[in-house]
Write a structure and sequence with these properties.
Helix content: over 70%
Number of helices: 10
InterPro entries: Homeodomain-like_sf, HTH-type_TetR-like_transc_reg, HTH_TetR
Shape: globular
GO molecular function: DNA-binding transcription factor activity; transcription cis-regulatory region binding
Order of helices and strands: HHHHHHHHHH
Number of strands: 0
Protein name: TetR/AcrR family transcriptional regulator
Keywords: DNA-binding, Transcription, Transcription regulation
Strand content: under 5%
Number of domains: 2
Organism: Kribbella antibiotica
């Protein structure tokens, strides 16, 4: 049965995501995606072009997943009070599924994402909380704090264990990102003057 174009694109991205989660970046190829959904290489290429084009589309798909998850998390924060631990879990959940490795590889190859601002709701809630807490600061300062957290989360899935080992963390402990993520939540809360927010998580 012939799929509609949009249905085909969804099926291809879903298959590519499953391959990424199951086998990492190397497992994602035009041929493997086609085999998984019963489509020829030419059929996959018709919708996404080369493997590089498919990977870029997959990364954007991951970005949409993070954006949607962040929006849901923000909507659940009572009275606009940010739960920073919840934010970290929300973003890390997607990056841990191979999207961090994908993002690092594409950026290393020279690709740049023109999209901006999907963490803007987080910036606004954190900045409003700072204001209420009597910690006035430029909005740009809050943006840089959120950007630093996002950068740390994006790199942790790929490099975090090695970086922790470099600081003397044991091999077994270095593989567990939980304590590091708690440290980020506490550090961000302290930097923004929102220690009570971290305690909520």
């Amino acid at each position: 049965m012939r799929r509609a174009p949009e249905e085909s694109r969804r099926a291809i991205l879903q298959a590519a995501e499953e391959l990424l989660i199951d086998g990492g970046l190397e497992a994602v190829s035009v041929r493997a995606v086609g085999k998984r959904i019963g489509m020829t290489d030419a059929g996959v290429a018709h919708h996404f072009g080369s493997r590089q084009d498919l990977l870029v589309a997959l990364l954007r798909h991951g970005g949409r997943r993070i954006r949607d998850a962040v929006e849901q998390a923000v909507a659940s924060w009572a009275d606009g009070q940010a739960d920073i631990n919840d934010l970290i879990r929300t973003i890390a959940r997607v990056y841990d599924q191979g999207y961090a490795e994908l993002a690092v590889a594409l950026h290393a190859a020279g690709w740049e994402d023109p999209g901006v601002g999907f963490l803007e709701p987080v910036v606004q809630i954190l900045h409003a909380a700072r204001t209420r807490a009597g910690r006035p600061a430029p909005l740009s300062d809050t943006r840089l704090a959120v950007a630093a957290l996002h950068q740390a989360l994006a790199l942790d899935a790929t490099y975090g264990a090695a970086f922790r080992r470099s600081a003397g963390v044991s091999e077994a402990a270095a593989k567990r990102p939980g304590p590091q993520r708690t440290w980020w939540a506490n550090t961000l809360s302290t930097a923004l003057g929102l220690q009570d927010e971290a305690a909520r998580g």
